[in-house]
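Hi, does anyone understand the following?
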Amino acid sequence: MRLKDKVALVSGSGSGIGEATAKRLAAEGAAVAVVDLNEEGARRVAEEIRNAGGKAEALKANIANPADVEGMIKFAVDKFGQLDILHNNAIRLYTGRVGEMSLDQFRKSIEVGLTAYFYSTQCALRAMVPRRTGSIINTGSISGLYGD
């Protein structure tokens, strides 16, 4: 178990890539903070991890809200005593033609896809740097390769 005694936080882990990541981290021995805007999904994933013999706790958080970002880092540290891995995975993406996308949709995409990743990383560093250890993973999309 490569991640025995490690603590991971995965945003957007109530479904999809985040869910698969949370489950894999737990299977490798990490305790996982399952964080998602969809509280039901987060609770389900955490329960499935626990039922498989892993350690997990669920939290509802909106990463577009700085107080929620601070809270999710605190949650992981309070529940498990440390933070070793942050996977910034949650995303809110609006797609469409530039001429048809509203300014509000564009701003929300930037707020969640960039600003929240930055702030989550900054908050996680406060828990990781004093311990001189940690890994931060930022999920990107193929949007960086294409002009959508």
Observations:
- The mean pLDDT is 93.
- Strands lie at 7-11, 31-36, 55-60, 85-88, 135-138.
- The chain is about 45% helix and 15% strand.
